[in-house]
């Protein structure tokens, strides 16, 4: 199942290229530096350009290309999903939520700009995502619907609420953790894949396959995140390992132990590969090999 | 300029009917009670059904009808603008923002449900607004664009940021107060009018006239709000008068004095009536007479 080193390097390089493309598009599509409201715009960019992996935009781009779409068609969608991802991090970091001082080695937005600006910058990023999708002409309705479903109470907001509840209550079940992962992380990755297919004007069957692929990939990705929280080192991760564990977070490792979580991550990777096949990808295709890459990642 | 008592009663009754219609639509279009995430859904409804005037949905309905549209066409838009209005109140009330314990005589959302749920319920309401507009078929892109522009950093978010900055800095100019009013209040009322016209599939010239009408009406409405903060009584207002003044808020009364603010409100009402004429309304039409009604309101 493991990737050959040469293939791993290829995927790494492709992800780096997707990251650079995403950064260029975000720079182009976010409100310009220095324009009013200055503090909010500055905080939006501080949050967005904080060194993220850009996995979600990469998945938009990958699926769009897989479905015959162009980079241009994928650009607005890629920027929109990253705005939503970033908004969720800014609000989740707030003192009344996870109360985090650092994110990717830098002060969180509320530590750098104050709580009020952090709430507003998050609100503005969420709104900006829909502003970007509104420019998609006849596809706007469908794209907005998919993104709003993933972001709202039935998606990421619900996941964060469950997560906070589970942290307080202690001792969640493995089904509860799976549900939190699905809502907090996998829903937006599934939406990214589905929106990539929509942007490429693909058929409904392809959209459904893309959605299933994103969902499986997202669940596998989050399982690995939980494992890295325990096994990773600070320098590679860019955050303090053991943080989720110390905070009593509902993680896969907390409910299954480390070996159990690793086993579960492998099962989820197998599911994601089957979903990639559903999308018409075979071994050697990016959509397929990305699964192994995310399973084996160290950061 | 004053309305005859009979006409004032007619407008009051029409506003009451619009309020009942809005409440029915919101009840139908918000996530059902008891569904997961239970706390967030409950807090969303607590915030939305807190006894607001429903002015924005009423304007959506008024303009849609004026442009030949149906109630049905206006319903999603009306619910969406009220969701955005409510989200902004929930987030503005947070301790890190205006730190309000009461809203319309009841505990604010963060006092009733805690800060984390208040942030999440606000996020969910904002997202839900776009979810509703996504169902508008070929009009979705335009509607989402207009609403997002009004809500985002160049609109309400920017207005709240300016307001917080002005409150801290003290002694704002009258131009600064006008700008805060425009962004915090008038932008969404302008969007409500414009979206009413879009929902009715009206011509671009009508959309522009509707937008101008909403903007002028919104500025007049907020000017009266500033005056009522000083002259109103608690029982009629449903909030403590003098609160903005005590908090050092940038209000029209603070920069112009009470008489100056009253003069300014009358000028803005005259502008709003001219804008109503631009929409083809004459004295005796609702769009026209609503201006005097809002100017003379006591709560």
Strand order of the largest sheet of chain A: 1-2
Tell me the CATH architecture of chain A: Orthogonal Bundle
Radius of gyration of chain A: 18 Å
User: How many individual helices of chain A?
Assistant: 14
Largest sheet of chain A: 2 strands, antiparallel
- Quote the CATH topology of chain A: Farnesyl Diphosphate Synthase
Main interface by residue count: A-B, 51 and 51 residues
Q: How would you describe the oligomerization state of the chains in this entry?
A: homodimer
Give the overall shape of chain A.
globular
Strand % of chain A is under 5%
What is the averaged pLDDT score of chain A? 94
Overall structural domain count of chain A: 1
Low-confidence stretches of chain A: none
Secondary structural class of chain A: mainly alpha
SSE run of chain A = HHHHEEHHHHHHHHHH
Q: In CATH's first tier, which class of chain A applies?
A: Mainly Alpha
Q: What's the CATH H-level superfamily name of chain A? A: Farnesyl Diphosphate Synthase
Structural notes for this entry:
Two copies of one chain form a homodimer. Chain A has helices spanning 5-29, 38-48, 55-66, 71-92, 109-113, 115-133, 140-151, 156-169, 174-199, 204-231, 234-237, 243-246, 252-278, 286-296; strands at residues 102-103, 106-107. With 299 residues, chain A is an all-alpha fold. Chain A has a single domain, classed as Farnesyl Diphosphate Synthase, CATH 1.10.600. Chain A is globular, with a radius of gyration of 18 Å. The interface between A and B is large, with 51 and 51 residues.
């Amino acid at each position: 199942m493991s990737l050959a080193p040469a293939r791993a390097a290829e995927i790494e390089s492709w992800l780096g290229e997707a990251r650079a493309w995403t950064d260029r598009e975000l720079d182009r599509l976010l409100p310009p530096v220095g324009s009013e409201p200055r503090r909010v715009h500055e905080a939006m960019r501080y949050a967005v350009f904080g060194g993220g992996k850009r996995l979600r935009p990469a998945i938009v781009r990958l699926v769009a290309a897989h479905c015959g779409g162009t980079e241009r068609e994928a650009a607005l969608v890629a920027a929109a999903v990253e705005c939503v991802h970033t908004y969720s991090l800014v609000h989740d970091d707030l003192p009344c939520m996870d109360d985090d001082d650092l994110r990717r080695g830098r002060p969180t937005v509320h530590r750098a700009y104050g709580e009020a600006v952090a709430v507003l910058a998050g609100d503005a990023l969420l709104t900006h995502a829909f502003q970007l999708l509104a420019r998609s002409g006849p596809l706007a309705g469908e794209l907005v619907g998919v993104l709003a479903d993933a972001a709202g109470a039935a998606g990421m907001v619900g996941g964060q609420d469950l997560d906070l509840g589970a942290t307080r209550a202690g001792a969640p079940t493995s089904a509860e953790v799976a549900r939190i992962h699905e809502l907090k992380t996998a829903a937006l990755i599934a939406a990214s894949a589905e929106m990539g297919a929509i942007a490429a004007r693909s058929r409904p069957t392809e959209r459904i396959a893309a959605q299933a692929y994103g969902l499986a990939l997202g669940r596998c990705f989050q399982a690995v995140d939980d494992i890295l929280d325990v096994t990773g080192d600070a320098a590679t991760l860019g955050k303090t390992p053991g943080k989720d564990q110390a905070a009593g977070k509902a993680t896969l490792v907390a409910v299954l132990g480390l070996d159990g979580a690793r086993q579960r991550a492998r099962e989820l990777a197998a599911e994601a590969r089957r979903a990639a096949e559903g999308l018409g990808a075979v071994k050697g295709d990016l959509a397929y090999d990305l699964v192994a890459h995310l399973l084996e990642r160290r950061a």
